[in-house]
Design brief:
It is rod-shaped and about 80 Å long. The protein folds into 2 domains: about 1-80, no CATH class; about 90-150, OB fold (Dihydrolipoamide Acetyltransferase, E2P) (Beta Barrel). The protein is about 45% helix and about 20% strand. The chain is built from 4 helices and 5 strands. The protein has a 5-stranded mixed β-barrel with strand order 1-2-3-5-4. The protein is an alpha+beta fold.
Length: about 160
């Protein structure tokens, strides 16, 4: 009877690891939860808490589905992220609004370059800005800053 337990737990642990690894090749964040369910069954079988195949399959199914139902959304946001989510948030999430920048090049047709935190950024402005001047970030669209010669009122 002990041999059956050893073989059962090894099967479940191997299945769990394979399902977790399959997420690297076929991402979708579903197989990972079934992998966690299989690892749980393998651990419980190894500890002798569960033994019969019907109980193992039931624990596997229930734990996998409950984990999938309760945790998938949280893990998906954490692991995958989304640029759409970033665009939908407040524009000041990056902490750029109201920051003072140095104008690196004269703005021609409203387009030029500024320096922010030691990096050169593409920028747009309705104001006529010249090299060496200071400006303030009023908005941003991706990696293009919108700047102004006057400091914006950032108080709400």
């Amino acid at each position: 009877m002990l041999t059956g337990y050893l073989e059962s737990y090894a099967f479940w642990l191997l299945l769990g690891l394979l399902l977790l690894a399959s997420e690297f090749f076929i991402p979708g964040l579903i197989a990972a939860f079934f992998g966690l369910g299989a690892l749980l069954v393998g651990l419980l079988t190894l500890l002798g808490i569960i033994g019969s195949l019907p109980v193992q399959v039931t624990v596997f199914a229930l734990s996998s589905i409950v984990a999938l139902w309760l945790l998938r959304r949280r893990f998906q946001r954490w692991l995958q992220g989304s640029e759409v989510d970033l665009a939908a948030r407040d524009q000041d999430d990056a902490g750029l609004l109201g920051v003072r920048v140095k104008v690196l090049t004269d703005f021609v047709d409203g387009v030029g370059h500024v320096q922010l935190n030691g990096a050169k950024w593409d920028a747009e402005s309705a104001d006529p800005l010249t090299s060496g001047q200071s400006a303030w970030v009023t908005d941003h669209a991706g990696i293009v800053l919108r700047v102004s010669a006057t400091k914006p009122n950032t108080n709400n």
